[in-house]
């Protein structure tokens, strides 16, 4: 939740009336935390499903650490793109590496959900689906960060957030929408 909150703050930075250099530094700080999202969210999804961690999990962790460290360099973003809906930072190699890492983590979570679908609780299924959806929406930001004028789907992170809250409520038996 903390990592997603950091990303939501990052989304709001370009709406602030700050100098672009100040916004860039604030983005770098938020990305130093956000780069751990693939690792943390994948492990959370696997834990929700009581699924074993694949052997390559350590590589996702290493890439998360590296992207976090390199987020403080000019390799995170290169410039800015200006669109009718707002300003987007132009992604650099760190964002691309982060996106590939996130894609592998999402795919791992989806495969684990498919393998454990029958034995997983309704709440766990919903939480893992929401985490995967959030990752896919974030990947939808890439076109705009590369200069393609497509609205950044990552701005819709409230949808997976709501689904995660419902999934946890279902697991706790406190949701009127689903009964155990």
Task: Give your account of this protein's structure.
This protein has 180 residues and is mainly alpha-helical. It contains eight helices and two strands; from the N terminus they run H-H-H-H-E-E-H-H-H-H. A two-stranded antiparallel ribbon has the order 1-2. The longest helix is centred in the middle third of the chain and has 23 residues, at 93-115.
- SSE pattern, N- to C-terminal: HHHHEEHHHH
Helical coverage, percent range = 55-70%
Instruction: Characterize the overall form.
Output: globular
Number of helices: 8
**Mean of residue pLDDT?**
87
Quick synopsis:
By secondary structure, this protein is mainly α.
List keywords for this structure.
8 helices, two-stranded antiparallel ribbon, mainly alpha, 180 residues, single chain
């Amino acid at each position: 939740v903390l990592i997603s909150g950091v990303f939501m703050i990052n989304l709001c930075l370009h709406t602030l009336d700050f100098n672009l250099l100040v916004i860039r530094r604030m983005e770098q700080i938020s990305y130093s935390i956000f780069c751990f999202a693939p690792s943390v969210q994948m492990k959370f999804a696997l834990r929700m499903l009581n699924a074993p961690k694949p052997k390559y999990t350590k590589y996702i962790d290493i890439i998360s650490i590296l992207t976090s460290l390199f987020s403080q360099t000019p390799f995170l973003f290169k410039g800015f793109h200006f669109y009718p809906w707002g300003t987007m930072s132009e992604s650099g190699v760190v964002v691309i590496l982060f996106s590939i890492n996130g894609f592998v983590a999402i795919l791992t979570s989806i495969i684990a959900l498919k393998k454990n679908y029958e034995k997983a609780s309704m709440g766990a299924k919903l939480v893992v689906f929401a985490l995967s959806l959030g990752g896919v929406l974030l990947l939808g930001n890439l076109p705009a960060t590369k200069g393609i004028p497509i609205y950044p789907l990552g701005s819709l992170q409230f949808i997976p957030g709501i689904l995660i809250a419902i999934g946890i409520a279902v697991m706790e038996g406190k949701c009127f929408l689903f009964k155990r």
